[in-house]
Write a structure and sequence with these properties.
- The chain crosses the membrane at residues 49-72, 93-125, 137-158, 165-187, 217-238.
- This is ABC transporter permease.
- The chain is mainly α and 244 residues long.
- It is 82% helix and 0% strand.
- The radius of gyration is 19 Å and the shape is globular.
- The relative contact order is 0.15.
Length: 244
């Protein structure tokens, strides 16, 4: 198993896709943090927390990373060689899941570090202090990293189930950015807070989710459940379906 994880790490660090996604994420986090820092009172801890909360929103990047880890191999026809090298396909998917989840957490941790740094520099330059002692600040930063990790794992499951890279990415983003909103208008917040993106907002402590969302620990457990569900389905279908 460790060898398979090592193979996945080699693929990840020798392709440009991961670096490109990381750069996009950090740019988005920096730009996103500038919003509340530009428009909200700098003497309030909520401003710094709102800036750091943008780490969670870039979990869509981690989701794409997870999808590409599997569906990308189908697109480039390298999945056949992968399975020939390790005929036990379930172990291959498990290795991809493990490595990509760690990579997703790494993306989130890097994003949290950048958002904290940007916020610190901004507040210091304006003559204000960073609320380092505020527990909510650290809950938000940690929650954003966990959200990224969970969506990376879910992405692996989606990529293994759908296989078509374009369809998997487009469908996932449409669900998270559009469908959940429509469902919310139809059935209300009491139902939608249990859906993946809404649960993610509670894990990442987005301001809009704090009032009526799930508690952070409950949302994290729910996201973990989604990741396990997608992973189990992916392993089952991968071992039963032809590669082509």
């Amino acid at each position: 198993m460790l060898k398979l994880i090592g193979n996945e790490w080699l693929k990840l660090r020798t392709t440009r896709g991961f670096v490109i996604l990381l750069v996009i994420q950090l740019v988005l986090i920096t730009a996103g943090a500038a919003g509340p820092l530009s428009n909200m009172p700098l003497d309030q801890a909520a401003t710094a927390i709102g800036a750091v909360a943008h780490v969670g929103l870039t979990s869509l990047i981690a989701l794409v990373l997870g999808i590409v880890a599997v569906a990308g191999e189908y697109r480039h026809k390298t999945i056949t060689d992968t399975y020939l090298g390790s005929p036990r396909r379930g172990r291959v998917v498990a290795a991809k899941l493990t490595l990509t989840t760690l990579a997703g957490f790494g993306l989130g941790a890097a994003g949290a570090a950048v958002s904290l740094a940007v916020t610190y520099v901004w507040l210091t330059a304006a003559g204000h202090s960073m609320p380092w002692s505020d527990a909510e600040l650290w809950r938000t930063a940690a929650g954003g990293a966990v959200w990224n990790a969970a969506f990376a794992a879910i992405g692996v499951g989606i990529g293994a189930l759908v296989r078509n890279l374009a369809v998997a990415v487009a469908g996932s983003l449409a669900w998270l950015t559009l469908v959940e909103g429509v469902v919310g208008q139809l059935v209300g917040r009491d139902v939608t807070r249990y859906l993946p993106f809404s649960a993610g907002t509670a894990v990442g402590r987005l301001p809009a989710s704090i009032a009526d969302g799930l508690p952070q620990w409950g949302a994290a457990a729910l996201l973990a459940g989604y990741a396990v569900l997608f992973a189990a389905a992916a392993i089952r279908f991968t071992t039963r379906r032809d590669v082509a």
